[in-house]
Amino acid sequence: MDVQDNKSAYDKQHSFFAMIDRMQYINRWGLMRNNRTENLKEHSMDVAVVAHALATIRKTYFPKQQPYIDPLQVMGIALFHDASEIITGDLPTPIKYRNEEIREAYKKVENQASLTLLGLLPEPMRKEYASFFCNEQDDCINIETHKIVKAADRICAYIKCISEEMTGNKEFLSAKETVIQSIERIELPEVAYFMKHFLPAYGKSLDDITDVSND
Fold first, then answer.
1. pTM higher than 0.85 for the full model?
2. How many whole angstroms separate alpha carbon 122 and alpha carbon 12?
3. How far is CA 46 from the centre of its chain?
């Protein structure tokens, strides 16, 4: 469509990006005492960074691992992986996964929320963004890509636990053990590589981080 030839389309305003910006108002870990509150916007950024790192590690160090994962695509999916919570809010994990019935019902709510968000885009742009909202039940993105994003999400949860523990908050000790166990069950070499080579620097002081060897 040539927007210059369609004045109504040219003049119409859309609120998709303004809604995405509201991720900053959705706080995570709602059932736990936080020494530092984490919002959905910063969490999404963290997951996108780690997911991109995992895909890049796979591409660099495990090139025979199939299928190939595009680091930029997985970063985009990670950036929007929890965007539906702008509408639904953050449902705590113990409740979300309490039983299969709740899990399936919430998945339907998430999918409807994603469609609502996509509807806030101009129609010609929706296909481009729709791939970022695909879930593991969809055929638009391979299942391995979703595994990378989920792994990144788990790693970021573990980093959050480390951060809270470093401030003396014992509230996250149990969660830390649960999360690391879930990470250890992930059979992806790129995850093991990240945990061995990059994770240890989290929680260190600035001086310690800058003194880390580049080897």
1. yes
2. 9
3. 7
- Mean pLDDT score, 70-78: 95
The DSSP result for 78-146, as a single string, is HHTTTTTHHHH----HHHHTSSHHHHHHHHHHHHHHHHHHHTTS-HHHHHHHHGGG--TTSSSS-HHHH
**What CA–CA distance (Å, rounded) separates 167 from 162?**
9
Distance in angstroms (rounded) separating the CA atoms of residues 142 and 136: 8
* Size of the chain in residues: 215
What is the torsional sign of CA 203, 205, 210, 213? negative
Q: Given this model, what pLDDT does residue 34 score?
A: 96
Structural domains of the chain sorted by starting position, each given as residue range(s) with its CATH number in brackets = 14-200 (1.10.3210.10)
**If you search the block for the tokens 């530092």, which residue do you land on?**
36
The residue whose two tokens read 């990006």 is 17
* Distance of alpha carbon 44 from alpha carbon 40, whole angstroms: 6
The answer to whether 136 touches 143, Cβ cutoff 8 Å, is: yes
Among residues 194, 204, 208, 203, the alpha carbon closest in space to that of 172 is found at 203
Instruction: Please determine, for residue 4, whether its predicted confidence score (pLDDT) is greater than 70.
Output: no
What's the angle, vertex CA 146, arms to CA 30 and CA 33, rounded to 5? Answer: 15
